[in-house]
Structures are given as C-alpha cells and as structure tokens.
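DM from R.C. (forwarded with permission)

"hey, sorry to bug you on a friday — could you get me a structure for this? deadline for the figure draft is monday and I only need the backbone to look sensible"
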Amino acid sequence: MTAQWIEVDGDVIDAIKAAAEPFVDNPNRVLRRLLGLPAIDHDRTASLPSSIPRAPRGSLCPLAEFDVPILSAISEAGGSAPRGAVQDSVSRALKDRLSDLDMKPLASGRIRWMARVDQARNLLVKRGLLESATPGLWTLTEAGAEYLDRRLKSRAAAERSEVA
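My reply, with the result:
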C-alpha cells in the first residue's frame, strides 16, 4: 500500500483530532476507523517530523511578493474569491519565484508556500486591504483596490522605463 498526501482544511483536521485516541492514533488510523476500513497491523503511513528546522533567511520567496498576486486574484474574481481560488492564482503568479524550500511541507503537513499565502492574507487584513468578515471568502476593501491599482501602475511604469 502506497502512502499518498492529501490537503484538507482546518475543519477536517479538527474533526480528525476529535475522533483520535491520544497517543494511539495517527490521521490514517482515524480515517480508516471513520470510513469503516479494517485496521492494519503495520501502519506505514509516513508521519512528519515533530519539528522542521526554520528556513534560513533569504531561502523563501519574500512574504511581500504575495501581496499583489493575492490582491490581483481577488480583484479579477470581482472583488471576492474563495481561499482555494486565490491559492491557485498565486501558485501560477509565483511559480518561477517559489524556491524548493517553499514547496516542502511543514510539520503540520501543509506546503510551506500555501501557509505563507495565509500569512500574507492576515497581514493584508491588518493593513485594511482585505476584509475578514466571511471565513473562507477573501474580499478586497476599497483601500485594497486602490493599493493594487497604485502597485500595478508603478510596475507598468518601471517596465516602460526599462524598455526605453
């Protein structure tokens, strides 16, 4: 039996934790029990190390690089977009800038760059550029739309001056 990685949201993780027997279960054992699958003697599902060393400074795509792709994804979706759609768009926008370390899983099992999208979103909320009212739905504020417009105009001007 080959182990596979899946991504689940926080609600699913919370449900798995609630159904787990402490010091006995791992997520695979819980899911097998909940799905009515037989227990296996030697559960070879890979468990992640309890801690993953902190990334060396400069080895990750800078958090500020996520701002424009996040805001652009939401703007292009009409001002609001679900988290998954934003992550898909950010993945495409930053694919050439994400390092190998960005692509590795954290101790939680989440891929590092995806966790950084959430970090960047939280900072955008604190700066008043995104609303935090509806869980799972990311919404641009008026200040966020203005900020994005300024950044895109600035980027276009810089590109024009490089060509000239």
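R.C.: lifesaver. Helices lie at 10-19, 27-34, 67-76, 83-94, 112-126, 142-163.
me: no worries. The chain has a mean pLDDT of 85.
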